[in-house]
What does this fold into?
Amino acid sequence: MSQSAPTPEKLAEVEEQFEEEMGQVEGLEGLMSVRSRFFGPKGSLTLLLRSVGALPPQDRREAGQRTNKIKQRLEGQLEGRIAEVESEARAAELRRDPVDLSLPGRPALPTAGRHPTARTMEDIVQIFTAMGFELAEGPEVETDWYNFEALNFPPDHPARDMQDTFFVKGRGLGEPELVLRTHTSPVQIRTMEARGAPLRVIAPGRVFRCDSDATHSPSFFQVEGLAVDEGISMAHLKGVLQSFINQMFGERPARFRPSFFPFVEPGMEVDMQCANCDGAGCRICKHTGWLEILGAGMVHPAVLEASKIDAERYTGFAFGLGVDRIAMIRHAVDDLGHMFRSDLRVLEQLRGG
Amino acid sequence: MKASLEWIKSLVPELKANAATVQRRLDQAGVAVDGVHRPADDVAGVIVGEVSSCEPHPESDKLKLTTVFDGQASHPVVCGAANVAVGQKVAFAPVGISLPNGLHIEPRKIRGRESMGMICAADELGLALRSEGIMVLKPRSKPGRPVAEVLRLNDVIYELDLTPNRADLLSHFGLARELSALFELRTPKPLVHLAEARKASRPPVKIELEAKARCPFYGARVIRGLQVGPSPLLVQQRLLALGQRPVSNVVDATNLVLLELGHPLHAFDLSKLQGGVVRVRTAVSGEALALLDGSRRKLNEEDLVIADGEGPIALAGVMGGADSEVGHETTDILLESAWFDPTGVRRTGRRHGLHTEASHRFERGVDPAMVQTALDTCAGLIAELAGGTVEKGRIEAGRLPDRTELVPIRPERATALVGRSIGRSEIREGLKRLGLRAVPSAKVPKKLQRGQEGALWYRTPSWRQDLHREVDLIEEVARLQGYDEIPSLVPPASGIVRTEAHAPRLALRLQQSLTELGFYETLSLGFCADRDFEAFSAPTKDRVELANPLGEETAFLRFSVLPALLAAARRNQDQLPSRTDLRMFELGRSFRWGQARQVQPVETPLLGLVMRGRRFPSGWGAEATELDVFDLKGVLESLLLRLGYGSPSARSVEAPHLHPRSAGVLSLDGQDVGAFGELHPDVAEAYGLEGPPLFVAELILEALESARRGPAKLAGLSNQPPAQRDLSFFVSKAHAAGEVLELIRASARSAPLETVELFDVYEGEHAPEGSRSLAVAMSFRAPDRTLKDEEVEAAQREILEALEAKFSIHLRSA
It folds into this structure.
């Protein structure tokens, strides 16, 4: 028997030798060689364990247990070190050649955006649809009846001067006078005719005025709102508009001033506290702290009557918002021209939010 | 309208509120104040100076060298006025200030002599239209005091944005009356200062009312022996502050009365009137009239004129005639004060493109009760300013119209409409303040009372011709308290049962998807010009033209949204010539006339898009590949797939705005939805677009809407392995790839063909003349079983046979 038996002394000697080698070994290669010298087919612990078989049967059990215990402990220690070294090596490998993430991102597609006016119009419509208003639309070329007369602008009435009107050249086929709608209010008449009362509609769209300067564009966008039902009052109008302002601009005070539009009575103009300066006074609000954002009022009984609705039984409110103006307030744009020039420098700056 | 607070307060002396309070109260009651101007601000910095020496300028005949003492220091000032003299107190503008005419005062050398400041004339301070010489202040004015104080310029001028219903506020008296109601003060009454001649004399003219419907009442007075000249400085100052040009004492008097009482008057030179008659009649076709503005108008039967024995002398209610104009030699005048029908004045004014202070008021309805008062007041004022004698009595014809109405108001209706409790006492008290007269219901005709049980009845005042029905009175009551008193309430649930399906809006989904695909949304004005039709060779027969365009840019309604997008591309190119990477879209309507029985033009909502430049945005690692038409087609396919459509098919067409080799129509399930392709180079040139080609598409939203499918349905997943086969063959270029692929899809019968993908197109030297090679990858799969080789082979054979039969293909050797 060339191999010495696994006596405690012998085992202690092997263990001491293992500890010493482990104390000196570096790197994965060294650990592998330790593994082969102690635990490999010819490793010292492997041989010691094998020699257990040669012991007398009554000694085998104890010697085997003793040897196995030490083998497991030492092997565990070694494998732990190996795993540690391997993991460090992998970590070092992964850290090599880091990517410079400060380099600009490479867009798959250009990053574009909606037109601020279109997006504002969408937001307005969404707020009102959530309040139970249904979407409605109407033609941009209107008859005098829908644009004016049914809205209580009698022919030859000075109220018509409130809106510079584009007229459409007729075909000479005896058609009635056609205009480019000066407001979205004709949709009021069209929807009341089509649906009757009660109703709640919101009608966004393009309108036209025969006027062009720094603060007027010959075409722009409005959103019209109309609610007709039994028992609708000015208090409801105030409630709905205040709610809209809060949702659109964050909670802020509004002012309701009496005013005149032929198709409403009583009529009002609504100002809200300036969204730019919170009422302190700035360039946008001309240092008044207030911004006029819409006209509104109770639907004039003559308008209900023109739409064949019982004006005694039903009342209603209507309002009209200037979308471009609201978009300009939102985005701090002070030149109306920017809203219609399709200038990519402008659209790019306003593409977010 | 501009209104002077000082003037208003002189008419309602009880009004003590300051300018800001008055402004706030007006705003609350619906009289919008657009701006506030203080004339004192115009002369800020101008101070009283004393001329302590005055000698001729050695180098000039007209200039003088003066010394002006400003209370603390003396300044050398070169002055050109003839009337400057030692000892005068003058308006001195020191160095560093600016005058209302924009002149900035700086140290100057005038003909070699230093001048440190300026002695001002009234016109230079905006206090008179014309001045002769400098303004000389009262001798006791203290040097150094602000001129604004010395001249008592403490007025406040409101710029009012009056709504067309409130004709009654187009005067200082009307505003005083309104403010007396708002501040609960005594209602003012107009005071007439008129001294007539004792003895009556025979009227020099007779008034004949021939058009009573359009002029129910005409009154006049005669003033003789007056002297026309400039008005006193204070009158000029007042007119200028209110935006009126002083003309002469007589004309200024009529303007002052217009501004004070709101009633337009006109003065004729009596000596120029022929035939001893003033006739109010409609014009005879062919008549003409030279007006005060220097224009000459051809009249027609719809024009109401004032005529003398020979012909028209004024366009009634609009403007006087030049021939009877009051001038410097005038001594006797006929002063007119009439009531003209609003509609007639408005029509005449519009036809002649004239809008005057007079027509503005007449077309809104002047107060009949003011016609005679204004005449008397003005006659008195003219005599005061220009001398002369007012002849006894008015010359009048016709009757003043009654413009009052009997209107009910029910407290419960007011409460329901306004949304706060409005009781009888609030109504009574408020309407009384506004000059409405309560009428006992016993005196109201029974038939008016039907359906108005429990109503209070009111007679509207003659100056409030905008009050016609109950709701008008309700507004007055609500307005007096202000709308702040009304609560904010959420309306009750509508109880409306919607019957229309709520489909997600197509337009919104297009806008969102295109934005994600890298396209900026634009909004243009919606018009187009004749040259757009030309550039696009668009048909002009049915185009919709404006009768009153602002210019050629707004001459027509658009036929397509593409011209606007191209113009936008051009503007961006001009902005930055390298800006040729561009993707934009716009949603808008096109317009054309439809069938004759359709009254309104056909409006077609369209989606236009344009792209050009590089396929990917520029960047440090991006390939600079130029876009081609397949990028556009890819965008369109991606867009339609996102929206739940199937893959569109495309065929070549001829479209005048598209490149002949690359013009297509896109269709979904056989329905054409729009055209796409490369922009025709001539069109690009017409819009000044240089650089890389443009790719454009225009889709018709209604067509997309009708091709719309419901939500996509899950077809189930197959676990069976697909059988893949590739096929590569030559085919004549005359056959469109789309048709070839279509035939492949349709021809497999023995095994289900799941997908066909075109993976290569080859047109090189190895292809036979006129042919190209197409390579397709086919994937066969049955949902429920593994396909047998024989089945796949049979299917492949069927495809080949079909291709050979229809397109005479031949296979490429493997």
In short: The first helix of chain B runs from residue 5 to 11. The CA atoms of residues 245 and 707 of chain B lie 66 Å apart. Chain B touches chain A through 99 residues (CB under 8 Å).
